[in-house]
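Give me the fold.
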Amino acid sequence: MANKLSSSSSGLLKLEEQLTCPVCLTHYTNPKILPCHHSFCQHCLEGLPLDKKSETYYLSCPTCRHDAELPEEGAGAFSVAFTLITLKEIYSGMKKVDDPQQVTCDKCTTANATGYCKDCSKFLCTECDGVHKKWGPTSNHQLTSLDKVTVSFSSNPQLLAPAKQEATLTCSVPSHDEPLKYYCDTCDESICHDCTFGTHKGHEYNLVSISYTKHSQDLEGSLNPVKGKIEALKKVMSALTEREGEIKKRGEEILEEIHDMVEKMVDVLHQSERKLTEQAKRVTDAKLKVLLGQMKSAEISLSLLEDIENYVEQSLKTSIPQKVLRSKKQMMERMSEVTAQVNVEELYPKEMADFVLVKDIKLLHHIGDVISPTQCKAKIGCFEWLPKQENVVFSLSIEAPDSSYLSVLLSSLRCSLVPVGKGDQTIHTTVTTSTDPGVYRI
């Protein structure tokens, strides 16, 4: 017996150490666990100094000094240290069974306990034990005798732990301090045994395990639409991914088309350059040819006039008067003849440097558009009845987002007309161009 007491005292001391908060040095009250896995009382954590960093508050673990981010709701939002709560229950039971004669019933609080309920973690007297077995919500609880608890607890303290080894949540009503073993369907909340006789008296309630089975099935059933949406969204994501690939591929094809189109336009421009260069040379050569003829005529006339001028001047300087007078008539006739032949006005340049390049580069400023058909609008013009041909004519134009008309290849246009209420027989149509760019006649 002495060995048992010694073992019991040793076990209690070890539990005392594990249940002592390192801050307040008393048993844990509402223990919380930090991310570094050290536990403290909630009120101890609330008393620690805080450090603010970028609008976020941090507290330093008193044991390892690791910084823990403080939840917006405060220290109470840290995870509950369920293991310590279970140890407290074991410790409480061990203290009681350490002196079996002093163990009283946790229900009626007066009679000596004779048994223990592992589901409720309560010691029961003989009368309460009998009621516990017969009452529906607790009829399936695991009960054991106090003697077995007394004999076994020193070697197996877990015997006093809740039967399912689950963390027990305690009722929030201060005077109850009972585990939340029931679920009130009327109020949609978990309650303790004492609550069934108080604020929840007359309500529909059941054991948490039974309610859990029922409500978990409801939740699983409610998941079906969610799962259906998930599958549908997965298909949508797959379609979006596939369409993304198609659009990227089409974009690359458009870029290649633009490159090919520009290359062809460059080739056409080079051809136009050669053509315009030849035209410029022909015009230049033609004008220079006329000018060259005028220059030759002017040079000949100038040479004749200069020869006569030199001859007359030389005669006046060197010849004797009789000789000059004798040849005067001949020189006068020659000067008159040559002067009459030379028409100075006709020898002025007939050609002008007036040739210009007539530029027509409007199309180069807008060589195309990359648009989606859904962005375009088709406009139908007024209908015109042609009695002789028995035809109806109307105009069709395709308007781009910038309100400009699109000009497309005539071969790429198709127009089908279906009369209303006369089946699906289409009316034959012919598409032709009009005088206005981008406007077609149907």
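Residues 1-7, 162-167 have pLDDT under 50 and may be disordered.
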